[in-house]
């Protein structure tokens, strides 16, 4: 962003002032010729590229909707839109590596079944490295290699090419990935679908027909076992009935597995004027902040999303958190509605035709302070609470921020801490694993790319004015066998 | 949905890329006209296109700054194009180290650098400019943000140049008076 050096105003401030200027076209010299279609198309293409890289949402969440469209893709954004700062080295399991980077602890390696099958077509090789499966989901770790530079693979979902026991099933899930270099991309995708319950294993067919812009055939067939993960999971069926302002919800199942903790729910929307393409049509309070019996907040992994049938108004959804060391006696849930600060998506029909989806957005107010070397720095977060920055140190090419969060949902609040330079550019985050000590769950550490001691930086969060934190809707899920 | 003059602003706000395509389709001629006027023929067409890209990207990234009630999108994008073009020109001349009369006239007479303001006072500065009388404000922005010459502004408003001078001086004074007590950083 350009600063107006004379006034120290930001670009967006200057543009606000421009609302008051009537610059007539006649004040400028006429042009000999008009801008041609070719040039316009070139500009559009360039812009689209730039926008894409700017809004690089690498953790993608999608949910499928039963009627009308086969797959709906909704980019998950806002508060925690992780993007990896650097290339990372792959150690044994891609799924483990990528999840660790986000602070999503879980014993992925232990329960991974190695596939390591590669298919090469049209200069691109796709390798399915490993899979994990339990009764509700299939996780696939994969690598894409090309002899040419590859790009725009961040949203390359595998679920649309998936068959389970020979059938195409509806699915929802999340995907993330990272470029190891210009020619290699690693990804992991978690596909939530109707996993056959009749046996301990099922057959997977993946007939991939396009990778990014490249068409081809990359066909895989392998069998996956759900046994190990299922055996080591503890499942509760609490059957809570919760009345939310826009829906009635039942908590069907809570699953404590070695890789994550999931709450499965189903419900019926009270909204009669539903539109299957409106992601809000199913239920708005789809971000459940969860606390264990000691009041420690569970780390959210992928909340909300799911299936919705606009004919019956029924939906099902899942809240997924990082795995817990012990099983609590109960969970306390605070349902929240979050209006994303930006976003949108595309729905894709059977023929691959894409329709853009627009969503309601609201930007919360930024709360910022200049980093002046004097600590603590306290950042108020409106009604939610506050963050106290105790120390910022730069060593070995990284900057480490140590801080505590106090308030209604400390982990949720702590996720939202960023640093920007005097041009308004955000400093890249090196690691999203912010809770380092389980004994001190409200103390956090965030690692950024090294700050330059000679430059001015601002540390910031927001007031969460786009979040409806509904303490009045709080409820407990008792976990009794 | 059909994109048109009535809904494209809202769709840009919702980050619908098709709405940005609409802006490129409908405002490219205007944007290039502004860029050609400011950057003139000595600029390679490649740079002009790069600058145009920058203008459209600024619209996309800063659409929240556009005020649908007060502003008019055509005027607004024109101002952004002019602002970006001036910025490009500055950068180019800095790079090439070429002395250029045009460049120097950008900072003639009262140097806007006389008015320096701390970041904390940004809000107050904006408020003060917004509180100026409508015409004074436009003159002020044209002079200090779009670097228009006093005589050109005078021509546009159909007045004598000392009228513009007087109004600019009134604007500067109001900035000094209102902002001085805040930080005391104003010269």
Task: Spell out the blueprint of helices and strands.
The complex is a heterodimer of chains A (481) and B (187).
Chain A: E1 3-4, E2 9-10, H1 11-17, H2 37-54, E3 60-63, E4 71-75, H3 94-101, H4 108-111, E5 113-121, E6 124-133, E7 137-146, E8 162-164, E9 171-181, E10 184-193, E11 201-211, E12 214-225, H5 227-231, E13 234-236, E14 240-244, E15 247-256, E16 260-269, E17 287-291, E18 300-309, E19 314-322, E20 330-338, E21 345-348, E22 354-357, E23 366-370, E24 377-380, E25 385-395, E26 398-407, H6 410-415, E27 418-421, E28 429-431, E29 443-449, E30 457-462, E31 467-469, E32 475-478
Antiparallel strand pairs in A: 1-2, 3-4, 3-9, 4-21, 5-6, 6-7, 7-10, 8-11, 9-10, 11-12, 13-15, 14-15, 15-16, 16-19, 17-20, 18-19, 20-31, 20-32, 21-22, 23-30, 24-25, 25-26, 26-29, 27-30, 28-29
Chain B: H1 8-13, H2 17-39, H3 45-61, H4 73-96, H5 101-105, H6 122-131, H7 134-144, H8 150-157, H9 161-183
Helix pairs in contact in B: 2-3, 2-4, 3-4, 6-9, 7-9, 8-9
């Amino acid at each position: 962003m350009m600063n107006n050096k004379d006034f120290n105003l930001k670009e967006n401030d200057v543009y606000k002032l421009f609302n008051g200027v009537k610059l007539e076209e006649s004040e400028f010299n006429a042009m000999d010729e008009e801008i041609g279609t070719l040039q316009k198309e070139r500009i559009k293409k360039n812009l689209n590229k730039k926008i894409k890289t700017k809004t690089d949402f690498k953790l993608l969440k999608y949910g499928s909707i039963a009627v009308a469209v086969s797959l709906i893709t909704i980019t998950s954004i806002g508060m925690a839109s992780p993007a990896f700062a650097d290339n990372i080295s792959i150690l044994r399991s891609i799924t483990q590596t990528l999840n660790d980077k986000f602070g999503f602890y879980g014993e992925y390696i232990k329960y991974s079944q190695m596939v390591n099958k590669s298919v090469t077509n049209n200069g691109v090789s796709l390798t399915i490295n490993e899979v994990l499966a339990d009764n509700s989901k299939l996780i696939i770790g994969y690598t894409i290699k090309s002899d040419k530079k590859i790009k725009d693979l961040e949203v390359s979902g595998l679920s649309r090419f998936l068959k389970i026991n020979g059938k195409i099933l509806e699915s929802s899930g999340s995907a993330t990935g990272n470029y190891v270099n210009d020619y290699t991309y690693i990804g992991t995708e978690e596909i939530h679908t109707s996993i056959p319950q009749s046996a301990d294993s099922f057959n997977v067919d993946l007939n991939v027909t396009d990778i990014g812009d490249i068409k081809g055939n990359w066909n895989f067939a392998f069998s996956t076992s759900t046994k190990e993960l299922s055996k080591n999971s503890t499942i509760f069926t609490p059957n809570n009935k919760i009345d939310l302002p826009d829906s009635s919800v039942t908590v069907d199942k809570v699953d404590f597995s070695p890789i994550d903790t999931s709450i499965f729910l189903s419900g019926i929307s009270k909204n009669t004027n539903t539109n299957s393409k409106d992601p809000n049509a199913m239920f708005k309070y789809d971000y459940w902040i969860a606390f264990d019996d000691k009041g420690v907040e569970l780390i959210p992994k992928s909340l909300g999303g799911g299936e919705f049938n606009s004919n019956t108004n029924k939906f099902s959804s899942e809240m997924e958190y990082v795995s817990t060391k012990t099983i609590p006696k109960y969970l306390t849930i605070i349902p929240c509605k979050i209006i994303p600060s930006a976003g949108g998506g595309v729905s894709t029909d059977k023929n691959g035709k894409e329709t853009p989806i627009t969503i309601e957005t609201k930007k919360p107010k930024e709360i910022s302070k200049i980093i002046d070397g004097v600590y603590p720095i306290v950042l108020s977060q409106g009604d939610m609470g506050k963050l106290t920055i105790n120390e910022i140190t730069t060593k070995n090419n990284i900057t480490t921020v140590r801080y505590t969060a106090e308030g209604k949902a400390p982990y949720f609040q702590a996720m939202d801490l960023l640093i920007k330079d005097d041009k308004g550019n955000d400093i890249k985050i090196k690691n999203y694993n912010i809770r380092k000590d389980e004994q001190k769950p409200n103390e956090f550490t965030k690692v950024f790319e090294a700050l330059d001691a000679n430059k001015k930086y601002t540390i910031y969060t927001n007031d969460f004015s786009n979040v409806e934190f509904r303490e009045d809707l709080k409820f407990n899920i008792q976990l009794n066998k | 949905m059909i994109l048109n003059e009535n809904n494209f602003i809202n769709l840009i706000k919702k980050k619908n890329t098709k709405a940005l395509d609409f802006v490129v389709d409908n405002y490219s001629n205007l944007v290039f006209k502004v860029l050609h006027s400011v950057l003139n023929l000595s600029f390679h067409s490649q740079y002009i296109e790069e600058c145009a890209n920058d203008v459209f990207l600024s619209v996309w990234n800063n659409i929240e700054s556009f005020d649908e009630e007060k502003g008019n999108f055509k005027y607004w994008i024109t101002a952004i194009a002019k602002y970006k073009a001036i910025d490009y020109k500055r950068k180019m001349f800095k790079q090439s180290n070429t002395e250029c009369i045009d460049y120097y006239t950008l900072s003639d007479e009262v140097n806007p650098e006389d008015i320096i303001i701390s970041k904390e006072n940004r809000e107050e500065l904006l408020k003060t400019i917004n509180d100026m009388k409508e015409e004074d404000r436009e003159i002020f922005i044209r002079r200090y943000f779009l670097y228009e010459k006093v005589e050109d502004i005078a021509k546009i408003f159909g007045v004598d140049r000392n009228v513009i001078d007087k109004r600019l001086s009134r604007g500067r004074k109001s900035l000094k008076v209102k902002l001085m007590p805040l930080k005391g950083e104003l010269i």
